[in-house]
Amino acid sequence: EGAEGERGWVCAPLDTKLNAQLDDLVAVAAGALPPWCATLTSAAPFFFAERSRLRHYRATAFGTSRSLAWAQDQLVATRRSAYAEDLLAAERMRADAEASHDAETLSEAIDQLAEIEERIGRDRLGALASDIARVRRDDALAASRRLMEAHAGSRRVLEIQFEGESGFGSGVTQNFYSHVANELQSSDASADVPMWLGASSSSSAAAGGCRLRPASARLPTPDRRERVEGAEEGAERA
Q: Is the C or the N end of the chain the one with fewer CB within 10 Å?
């Protein structure tokens, strides 16, 4: 039975059943989900809500190590929600102790926070293996191409550190991807490889690294190779 409105063809019983299977973290980590989960989400994705399809994708698409990490993250998120009030109380205690310069209460609050965090993550089996790449900030776009070629086949997490800077971790890695995204929208990059519909040299206010500002929404240009191959296939059929 499909839901109405935005849910369209979503089948509520199937969607609920899929989420129940994904809540079985042991089965997820072991790669032992029932075969129908993969079959139906692939053959009839419209039966499931977008959130459910995304959960299934993250739980199954990247191998056992990623599935285990995803299962652990789900467990940690559930526990963190359960301890939300305790965490808030401990944070308030620490803030009050810092404001009043009460060293003893501050020490107690820090101990409480550490104990709660230990409870939340006590069953973790370790983190995903990662590779660290050091790149120059002014060479981010070229470095991204090299990293894609070298790391595309790896299942390790890729972390980025900028040369000459001390920061590291997920925040720096996200900053790298944001920097690359901005570079791809520059007039210089578009001049080398035109990739945006409606973008031309006139879209840039000035030469030399300015961001393109198309009049309409920024949409990628279709790959010309695909158009050529499609035309060739059509000619062969004719």
A: C
Among candidates 67, 80, 83, 75, which has minimal Cα distance to 33? 67
Within 13 Å, how many C-alpha atoms sit on residue 8's CB side? 8
Angle at alpha carbon of residue 196, lines to 192 and 197, rounded to 5°? 130
pLDDT, tens only, 191-222:
677 777 665 544 444 444 566 565 556 677 77
Task: Show the tokens assigned to 93.
Answer: 């205690």
Element (H, E) at 131: strand 130-135
Burial of 187 (0-12, 13-18, 19+ CB in 10 A): buried
Per-residue model confidence as pLDDT tens digits over 42-98: 999 999 999 999 999 988 888 777 787 887 887 788 888 888 898 899 899 889 988
For all residues of the chain together, what is the average pLDDT?
Answer: 79
**Which string of b and e fits 104-118 if b means at least 16 CB within 10 Å?**
eebeebeebbeebee
User: Region 2-19: what's the mean pLDDT?
Assistant: 75
Over residues 221-238, mean pLDDT: 57
Length of the chain: 238
Token pair 């035309």: residue: 231
The span from the CA of 196 to the CA of 187, in Å, is: 10
Torsion of CA 78, 81, 86, 88, to 10 degrees: 140
